[in-house]
Design brief:
six-stranded parallel sheet, alpha/beta, 5 helices, about 150 residues, globular, about 40% helix, 6 strands
Length: about 150
């Protein structure tokens, strides 16, 4: 891919949005970032840009107004959006929720790391995986991404 990877980050925490944006600046992969603050803003953005969707969505689960789980269901049920790759990006890790997210069609699940360097590493790893797998959902045992 010669042009930048277009990324939507749906995240309600301003600090997390800033860390994510700063982390992208240090990657070897060129990116373009669009941020939204909650699930309602996300769905509105997708509706307004359905003919030019981003390459990938990093989706927080715990957001106000409409949570990430509800957004994922809505995205995967809508034929205009259902091919948008979704990487769940969350601080929580509940195995039942992770399994449900996989069943609903999320591409990967990554836990927000505690350090900036780890954040850069896991974003770069996830984008490289997305590029090499053709944006397909992996086998279930490869769904949860960890920093290596």
């Amino acid at each position: 891919m010669n042009r930048p990877i277009s990324i939507i980050l749906a995240e309600d925490d301003e600090d997390d949005r800033l860390f994510f944006k700063d982390a992208l600046l240090g990657l070897t992969i060129p990116t373009h970032l669009i941020t939204v603050n909650d699930g309602e803003q996300l769905m509105l953005h997708l509706s307004k840009n359905e003919d030019a969707l981003a390459h990938v969505l990093f989706l927080d689960i715990n957001m106000p107004l409409k949570n990430g789980l509800d957004c994922l269901v809505e995205i995967k049920r809508n034929e205009k959006f259902n091919t948008l790759p979704v990487i769940i990006f969350s601080t929580s890790f509940d195995k039942e929720v992770v399994n449900k997210l996989y069943e609903l069609g999320a591409n990967y699940y990554m836990r927000k790391p505690g350090s900036f360097l780890r954040l850069q590493e896991i974003i770069e790893r996830s984008l490289n995986l997305m590029l090499t797998t053709g944006f397909e959902q992996p086998a279930k045992e490869k769904f949860v991404l960890n920093v290596v």
